[in-house]
Amino acid sequence: MKVDFVLNGENVSVETADDATLLWTLRERLELTGTKFGCGISACGVCTVHLDGTAIRSCSTPLSAVAGRVVTTIEGLSEDNDHPLQKAFQEHQVPQCGYCQSGQIMQAASLLNTNSKPTENQIIDQMDEILCRCGTYTRIMKAIKKVVEEGQS
User: Fold this and answer.
1) Quick check: pTM over 0.70?
2) CB-based contacts of 55: which residues, under 8 Å, 6+ apart?
3) What is the dihedral sign for C-alpha 68, 39, 121, 139?
């Protein structure tokens, strides 16, 4: 199967098996390893990317579902890792192991793309979908709130 789509601003064409998922195509075929594998059933969210600007779980998204659409990974969020969320995550020392970080940032970016001034409860509702095994939820909230307060989204 051949699938054409826009990836991080570039047109790509991928020839792959009919049952290929977006996650494994990104990691194995396109060598974009910022998107992580966690559970494989869309439960943990560490594989979160954007599809047409909306956060999705790439582990359960068939590659065929992205044909003709726009996919953004953590590598495409900003050119120099200088997106306000990336900077705030660094400033607040969010990651311990860092495994969920790209999923957390992509989930938060999706929220801020649609709501630049979310309430604390709206942030919690959105971010509850991403598991952090290290438990740095307080730091994650502080980082997102900083971006919201400074109007940087």
Assistant:
1) yes
2) 48, 49, 106, 107, 109, 110, 111
3) negative
